[in-house]
Amino acid sequence: MLKLINLGLLSGLFFSATFVLNEIMSEQGGHWFWSASLRYLFMVIFLLIIALLSDGIKQLKQLLQLFLQHAVFWIVTGSIGFGAFYALICFSADYSPGWIIAATWQFTIVASLLVLMLFGRRFPSRVWLFSTMIFFGVLLINLSQATEVSINQLLFGALPVLLAAFCYPLGNQLVWEVRQGQHKKLPKIHSPLLDKAFNKVLLMSLGSIPMWIVLGLFVQPGLPEKSQILNTALVALFSGVIATSIFIYARTKATKASELAGVDATQASEVVFAMIAGLILLNSVQINLLAICGLAFVFIGLGFFVLYQNRP
After folding, report:
1. Among 11, 21, 10, which Cα is nearest to 232's?
2. What InterPro entries does its record include (predicted)?
């Protein structure tokens, strides 16, 4: 379990780049649609190159065939877990600074438990206690910085993120369920190609493309700036390719619902990394006693996850 927690924390480090770079792009006037959609365009490009170089053209063709065989599933999963999730995150960046988004996003810790229950997964009541501790720590961090939060920030900054907090674990759990092949209402995909986290991320990224096309036709944004294109490429690399692959790999290695909940809970570390980056790069965060207490709750909760799983 300790290894899974460490992998989750590492993914949280790279995930935090999303909040910082999105805040920078928002301040520069870039439209949220390009911040969201270009990320996945770059992700598809990066992942196709990685798959081609690591596995060859033959296996890449097999992967694309796997996508076509279950196209409806991958489109639905990619649209929920990647498309809707990240569109809502980028939309909220126009109304709230990165630390508010990062802190509010941690509601996904609780949302993940509810999603697991939706699929009939069960875990000890202590898992709820540990997750609540982490979420309480996140709330303290949020409150420590919330002296100037407006109504618009709460409505258009926080609410979309709360919705995104359900979309991301739902999309990832759908992939986990079909790989296990135990859910009667979902397809059973037993391909060894799904043993690689990179392949899962690529399939979900490809599945999100139809949603981006429809959303772009609806929103009709202006052309993106060069700086926004560069920043979304960085987000795609750090958060989309590296962080997401590490996170999905950690979830793949989890064998119990409580281990899945522990991996999902490590996303709370994004708040810490986002606060540090905001403090150093944007000077938009001030560390105070309440924030320190919040950080303590976050890491104590994660520590309990590790201790509970490693009990004899």
Report:
1. 21
2. EmrE
With 0-12 / 13-18 / 19 or more C-beta atoms within 10 angstroms meaning exposed / middle / buried, residue 179 is middle
pLDDT (tens digit per residue) in 118-163: 888 777 788 888 888 888 887 787 677 666 566 666 678 778 988 9
Q: If we measure between CA atoms, which residue out of 180, 186, 196 comes closest to residue 244?
A: 196
Cα–Cα distance for residue pair 176/178, rounded to 1 Å = 6
Separation CA 19–CA 22 (nearest Å): 5
Give CA 245 to chain center in angstroms.
Answer: 10
CA distance 20 to 281: 9
Q: What residue has token string 């590492």?
A: 10
**pLDDT category, 283, cuts 50, 70, 90?**
low
pTM: 0.80
Domain boundaries, the chain: 2-309
Interatomic CA distance for residues 273 and 107, integer angstroms: 17
Helical spans, DSSP H, in 236-281: 244-253, 257-265, 269-277
Q: What distance in Å separates the CA atoms of residue 121 and residue 220, rounded to the nearest whole number?
A: 41
pLDDT digits (tens, 9 = 90+) for 233-248: 998 888 888 888 888 8
